[in-house]
Amino acid sequence: MPGTEPQDFRIKKLLEEIRQKYSLSDLRAILKAEDLGPAPGWEKLTERFLESDVDLKSRVEVLLKGLRGDLILAGTKICRCLSLPMIRGRSLQRHLHQSIQLLRVSEPRIR
After folding, report:
1. Between the CA of residue 13 and those of 24, 34, 54, 74, 101, what are the distances in Å?
2. Which of 27, 73, 103, 105 is the most buried (most CB within 10 A)?
3. Which residue blocks in the chain are alpha helix, DSSP H?
4. pTM exceeds 0.85 for this model
5. Up-side HSE of residue 15: CA atoms within 13 Å toward CB?
């Protein structure tokens, strides 16, 4: 049953998933904005979170779940196939520009 795993396991799993998509410097900026302390490296960060008190673990888990949710949303919404007519030169440039304007790229949310 989801959500019944121990909190340490969930935090470790979330960090592993986020590590595949976020750079450590990006995560550092997010942690700083959330007043969750420094991230000297992925392993040290994992250790620090797992050894922290219950309140900090809860804050961390909420943040990490939000980041994972953003990754899932971005991963499923970022790809869009565009149908372009067979054209050349400036006409192609104009069509590409119009198509790109249709795409909306959002900034990562920092909770």
Report:
1. 16, 20, 17, 19, 37
2. 27
3. 7-19, 24-33, 42-50, 54-77, 89-102
4. no
5. 23
